[in-house]
Amino acid sequence: MLKLKQAEKIQGHSKMFSNVDLEIRQGDCVTIHINADTRVTLMQLLTGKEELSSGDIWIDQQLMTKGKKPSWEKVGFLFLNDGLYDRLTVRDYIKFNIKLFGSTKTVEEVLNFVQLTKEASVKIGHLTFSKRQRLLFARLYIHNAPLMILSDPDQNVDIESKRIIINGLNQLQKEDHAILVLTSNMESALTFSNHVYRMDERGLHEVNESQENNHDEEKLDEQVDTTLVEFNKIPTKVNDKIILFDPVEIDYIESIKGSSYVYVGGSGYQCTFTLNDLESKLLSFGFYRCHRSYIVNLQKVREVITWTRNSFSLMIDDGEESKIPLSKNKMAELKDMLGL
User: Fold this and answer.
1) Which domains does the chain have, with CATH numbers?
2) Mean pLDDT to the nearest integer, 225-235
3) Distance CA 282, CA 273 (A)
């Protein structure tokens, strides 16, 4: 349904991405972790509003070029903060889109899909931001195109709405839709799909458990043991400064492209230790390897969120209510640790 072949985009003097090869077939759900600027540009490319510097984008065997929009029958889009008709009620908006797309779905079926039955008679202008995003997701569901492309569908939504979107994507994938989700949040990327990539100026990189673990082990083997004295502070770097954190200050730690980032109060600081090093150093302080790419301070966990039967996150009490992924095989282990 969607194919990128040696795709490259240069904006001004900056390379946004290069050498991107990706194919999404029916029944696939793929997530790309991407920065905001590149996400906007990629959506412009996919809608025919911009063109690649080199390479090709194909949608349902149609070569995308500037000014050539993809067939609306073949692809549906969900844009971040897309417009809605505030004066219409939720029910009237759904009726309008059912007629627009010639859908066989009923209004009640759509309301139930996004769990807006109680809001059916409410004007859209009176809905919360999260429920407005659900309504945009409902429009995508009504459209029912074979290929669906979503831009940050869960940005700033509440937990209930995120769960509804995740369950909806799972259902659409089972119905054999091809799905591409672009997000600037890694926790969301890992929650939406098992096929996760990072995109940067060097290209597309698959987020692969064995690759990341092997990378950590290689770096660990290269290090010389110089720990002659016990030192509990965790060193981080900001420009030319070294900042030391007590373990109790740390909320969680994330591995990105083999580099570790320590998060304190919503801010991230790069650390020279590998994730394996940090796991070993911080185990006695109540830290837990909740995911291949994350270590969490269990004292900072406010809530364990269940999105689906096999998809979980931890909400962190860091003032930002950050959410980090919890691997499904770690859930039972964590329950035992918490005495649940």
Assistant:
1) 2-206 (3.40.50.300), 209-338 (2.40.50.1020)
2) 63
3) 12
Separation of alpha carbons 17 and 181, rounded Å: 17
The neighbour count for residue 289, using CB atoms within 10 Å, is 19
Residue ranges of E strands in 208-322:
234-238, 241-245, 252-256, 259-264, 267-271, 287-291, 294-297, 301-308, 311-316
Sheet arrangement for strand 203-206: 75-78, 147-151, 178-183, 29-33, 195-200, 203-206
| pLDDT for 227 | 45
Closest CA to 182 of 336, 338, 47, 335: 47
Whether the Cβ atoms of residue 290 and residue 299 lie closer than 8 Å to each other: no
Report yes or no: 7 and 56 within 8 Å, Cβ to Cβ.
Answer: yes
Q: What is the pTM of this model?
A: 0.72
pLDDT reading at 123 higher than 70: yes
Type of residue found at 194: N
CA distances from residue 145 to 102, 113, 133, 152, 250 in whole angstroms, order as listed: 12, 16, 19, 19, 45
State the pLDDT at residue 194: 82
Q: How far apart are alpha carbons 270 and 160 in whole angstroms? A: 32
Closest CA to 78 of 131, 179, 150: 150
Burial class (CB in 10 A: 0-12, 13-18, 19+), 206: exposed
Question: In this structure, what token pair is assigned to residue 327?
Answer: 């691997």
pLDDT per residue as tens digits for the range 313-326: 999 988 778 899 99
Question: What whole-number distance in Å separates Cα of residue 36 and Cα of residue 156?
Answer: 14
